[in-house]
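Quick start: read one record
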Amino acid sequence: MLKVAFVVLLIFSCSVFACNKTLKVGTNERNWPPYVVAVKNNLTGVEIDVLNTIFNGSSFCLKFVLLPTSSRAFEELKEGRIDVIFAASKTSARADFAYFSDAYRDEVVRLYKYTESPDLNNISDIFYKDLTLTVNRGSYYGVAFELFKQNYPANVIMMPTAEKRFAMLNKNRVDYAIEDELAAQYFINQYPAIEAVTNMAAINKSSTHLMLSKKTISQVELQAINELIKPNKSAIQAIYPHY
């Protein structure tokens, strides 16, 4: 059986010897500024800072695990080989195998285009005009988009990382991309051929949670993690850049 190697990163905790449980935190993102950036397999970024803020001084230590795709991360969580996925949207399908923490931030997801691609007023125009769109494999963008994706699968190209999606968009290999607006700003600054679709509402607005494996996290531990999030809400909000 083919085995995909993990890259296990250093534990980000000042109290390594005091923790009662080490949580394996999985991510496939290596270049998702400002949230996550991997430099020689060491993760930095505001999402990593948020996790360290939440768990600092707690009975939990963190060990970060790099995975090839987000869908692989979900499978690892489902089987209990990792314990936590961050920046997760809550869905009924995921709730079958995962708990969700209290929300710790909000996410706004928008549509971005190659500069010569036509402006749109509605996401359905992509499919009706037979244009192409790249999205993160395994991500959830709301009920309406899920229906469009099911009805027009040939128009939706799944890519594992934001870096690859925006590189494709910059080369006009796809017409549009869907991305978190904070992360997209970085790539717009890097690629002058990419711009936001400004006359269309956000694709999705939702709260963001920690996603916790039901195989390795108890409800008591879930409550303990929620109790760590609550007093850190102000500190968490101060970490994220404001536009």
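Residues 71 and 151 are 21 Å apart (CA to CA).
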